[in-house]
Amino acid sequence: MDQIDEFASMFRRAERQPFVHEDISIVRVAIVTDGDHESATTVRDQLVRFVPRLNGVEQWDLITGEQFHTVEELTGRLTSDSPDLVVTFRHLQEESLIPQHSLGVYVDVMTQVLSTPVLLLPGTGIEPGEICPGACNAIMVVTDHIAGDSRLINYAVAMSAGSGDMWLCHVEDDAVFDRYMQAIEKIPEIDTEQARVLLGRQLLKDASDFIESAIAELQTRQTGVTYHASVVRGHRLQQYMQLVESHDVHLVVVNTKDEDQLAMHGMAYALSVELNDRPLLLL
After folding, report:
1. Model-wide pTM > 0.90
2. Looking at domain 28-175+199-282, which CATH architecture does it have?
């Protein structure tokens, strides 16, 4: 067997990763806002309409502006309380100067030090935006590595109203693919053009197979939801923005960091900054 055949066999032998469904438990939710108790209560009421399953939350922690004054104070409380979900806004306690292209120091640190998912609502701490007045029935999962990421999809399902549409989207980054190819080009035993076709096809197939297995499983559980798959190659941020804007998406679900990474990675951060007009669930 020559080298290119071995290269092809390596991909054919790759184990297919099936989707694994898991019910996500959300029994305690923390709402962090710059406003007073009344405004926090309003946010809670809007959330329950937006995500009907939150009607089952057993404890709501309403953390208002006068209850925290430093990042350490807030993150310390959240770590101690250990909610299942943190709901908040960009630019908490930043009234006079709100820098563009950032989320604010509070959200920056929360996404770094907390393992708890953060639901980022539209607008800012000082000027909250409006949540969709109805139930959340248009959800989009976006990632550059969906194969094997059951958790991402399971959280999207947990936020669904059980009707409407859900898009499972994978964008293979052109820049990463080109880097793979630059390395392969330096291996004389491998035909570069064959490798380009084979690698490109397999990377998309892995994602497609996983999404297919997820949809097959979810269709037996949420029969009122229509599931859509999108697997493409391109510039991740541009593709994500096009996907979100081409549909009337109520909620975007995205991974914020890899297993071995502390800070939010660049793509997730850029997406969180740009999509400030709708809720984002940051995992």
Report:
1. no
2. 3-Layer(aba) Sandwich (3.40)
